[in-house]
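Action item from last week, closing it out:
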Amino acid sequence: MTPEKKLSSLQNERVKRAVRLRTGRSRKDPPLLFVEGFRQVRRAMENGVKPAEFYYCPTLYQGENEPALVAKAAASGAELYECTEAVLRKLAERDRPDGIIALVPEVRRELASLNLPANPLVLVCERIERPGNLGTILRSADGAGVHAVLVCDRCAAVNDPRVVRASVGTLFALPVVETGSAEALAWLKERRIPILAATPDANTDYAKADMTGAVAIVVGTEQHGLSARWIEEALTRVRIPMLGQADSLNVAAAATILAFEAARQRS
C-alpha cells in the first residue's frame, strides 16, 4: 500500500499542528481528538469512529496486526502519513510509542441521546480532576458493564488524550456524557433512577447496599468529596471501609470497587 504522504521532517507544519493538538495548545475545526496507541485506535475504529488523519511508523510496530489497521483506516477515507521514527516519536506522548497515532472526531454526546435498558447501571463522576483517574474510571465502567457514564462539572475533559490513553480506548465504547450536576440530577429524577452516593461519612457498608435495580453510583474528588447537592439527593449513602491509616481511596479505585460490586450483585 502506498501512503498518501511521507513525513520525515520535525519542522513539518503538519507535525507541529498535531503536537499542538496533543498538548492542548491548538484546536481544529471540526474538533479532533489525538489518539495514540494501537489498542486505543483499534478500539475507536471498532466502535465506528473514522479517523480524519492517521500517522504510522512500521519500524515501531510491536505486533503483526498494525498493517491491517492501517489498511482499514485507508479504506475509511483517512489521510495517511507514513512517518520516520523521529517524527512519530515527536508526535507521541509515550516514551515507547507503538507506531500508531490517529486524529479522530471528538466525543460529543447529549443526555437526551442516551438509550438505557430497564434497570440501568449509571456511573456519575463529579469534578474529577486528573485525566488518568477519569480514564481509569471509564475502563472500569466498561469492564463492569455500566450502561452510561455522566461526567459532571468537569475538571478533566473527556476529550483529553490522557483520558483516552488511560481508558485504553473504552471512551469510544461507552455512552459518556459531559454535563452539569443540575442537568444530571434532573435527568436521573425524570427517569426515576435512585442515587447511591459514595462518601466516607456514610454509615452503610457499600457491600450491604442494594444495587440490583436501577441505580446511579456517584463518586467525587478525593480532596473535597461529593458536593452537598449530590449527598442530599442520594437515596443511599455508602462508604468503603478503610482498615489502614488512609481515610479514603483514590477516586478511580473507589469507582472500580463500587461498579464491580454492582456487577456482582446483578449477575
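Closing note: The CA atoms of residues 200 and 247 lie 8 Å apart.
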